[in-house]
Amino acid sequence: MEMCRGKSLVIAVALSCLVLLSLGGQCYGQLQQGFYRGKCISNNDLDFFGRTSFKEEDVEKIVEQEVSREFFNDPKLAAALLRLLFHDCFVEGCDASILLDGTGSEKEAGANQSVRGYDVIERIKKVLERICPGVVSCADIIALATRDAVALASREKLRSPVKTGRKDGFVSLASNVDLPSSTISVSQSIDKFKLKGLSETEMVLLLGAHTVGMTHCGFFQDRLYRADEPMDADLRRALQARCPQDGSGSNNPVALDQGTPMAVDKSYFDQISTKRGILQIDQDLFTSGLTNKTVIEIAAKGFDFAVRFGQAMAKLGEVGVKTTEDQGEIRTTCGRVNFS
C-alpha cells in the first residue's frame, strides 16, 4: 500500500511538472514565501543564568540590512545584482551556478567577464553562516539581495515578494553559457525568453532593468555612424564625442538610460520612445511591431511599472530552480560545492 502511494505521488509530481511545462516552459518547483521562517536559529547569546539562549533570526531582514550597507558604498549595486541574477538564471536555472569558481566555470565565459557582485553575495553568505550555518542557499541570497537593491534604487517603490527555498546547483560550465547578445533581434530575444517560460511582455519589462545598466562604446558605436539609424540627433552628437569612430574610446562607459541612470524607474521606456536607446536591442523594442505597443503602454502608464517589473523579476528568479537534495545543496561557501 505504501509503495502504491509512493508511486502515485511520483506520478502526480511528474504530471504537475508536465502541466507547468506546457503552460510556461519551466517547472518552478516548491518555492514559497517565508520559506526560512523558523529555520534560522542562532545560539550565540547567553541568558541570565549563563545558559545558551536560542533565537529565531529573520533571514530576509538580515539580507536587507547587509544590502543596505553595501548599497551605501556602491549606488550601482542594483545594476550589478540584476545582471548577476539574469546571467545566473538563464544558464542552468537560478541555482547560483554562476558563483562557482574553477577552470571552465560559468564565471570564465566571455559574456560573464564584466559581471560583478560575487563578493557582495559571499559577504552576505558569511554573515548568515555565522548566525545559522548550512541553512540559507547562495541562490536565495542572490534573489533576495537583488530584490532589496532594486528596492533601494527605486526609493522603495519596488519591493516585490520573493519566494525562497532554492538549492545551490552542482554544475557550472562556461560551455553552457548562451545569453542574448546586445545585437540580437527582437524576435530572437522573444524566443530565448519563451524557452525560459517568460512571455513577450515579461521580456520587455525585464529589459527595463537597463534603466540602471551600463555598457561600453564598443558594444554600440557602429550605430552612431550609420545614417539610417534612428537616433536622437543631440544624443548621437554627444555619443560620437565619447565614442570616436576610430574605436579609441571603445572601453568608455555609457549609461543605457540617459534620463535617470541611477534609478529603477520607467525612464528607460521614455528614452527608447524618443529615439534615445543605446543598444540595438533597446531601440528595436520600440521600432519592432512585436513589442512597440508594450513599450508605449509602459511609458504612458508609469504608475504601474514598479509592480509589473517586480512581478517579472520574481518570475525570472523562479526559472529552473532546484529544490530537492538530489538537484542541489546548501553550499557552505558560494564559490565551491561542498566537499570539493
Automatic annotation (TrEMBL):
Biological processes per GO annotation: hydrogen peroxide catabolic process; response to oxidative stress
A GO molecular-function descriptor: metal ion binding
Q: Where does Ca(2+) 2 bind?
A: 211, 257, 260, 265
Keyword check for Signal = yes
Reactions it catalyzes: 2 a phenolic donor + H2O2 = 2 a phenolic radical donor + 2 H2O
**Enzyme Commission code(s) on record:** 1.11.1.7
Q: Domain Plant heme peroxidase family profile, which positions?
A: 30-338
One GO cellular component assignment for this chain's record is: extracellular region
Q: Where in the cell is it found?
A: Secreted
Enzyme's top EC category: oxidoreductase
What are the UniProt keywords, alphabetically? Answer: Calcium, Disulfide bond, Heme, Hydrogen peroxide, Iron, Metal-binding, Oxidoreductase, Peroxidase, Secreted, Signal
Q: Where does substrate bind?
A: 180
Q: Which InterPro entries match?
A: Haem_peroxidase (IPR002016), Haem_peroxidase_sf (IPR010255), Peroxidase_pln (IPR000823), Peroxidases_AS (IPR019794), Peroxidases_heam-ligand_BS (IPR019793), Secretory_peroxidase (IPR033905)
Pfam families, per the entry: peroxidase
Q: Which residues bind heme b?
A: 210
Query: Binding of Ca(2+) 1: at which residues?
Result: 88, 91, 93, 95, 97, 106
Protein origin, superkingdom: Eukaryota
Q: Which cofactor does it need?
A: Ca(2+); heme b
- Can you list the disulfide-bonded cysteine pairs? 89-94, 138-334, 217-243
Q: Provide the family line.
A: Belongs to the peroxidase family. Ascorbate peroxidase subfamily. Belongs to the peroxidase family. Classical plant (class III) peroxidase subfamily.
| Protein name per its UniProtKB record | Peroxidase
Record the organism. Morus notabilis
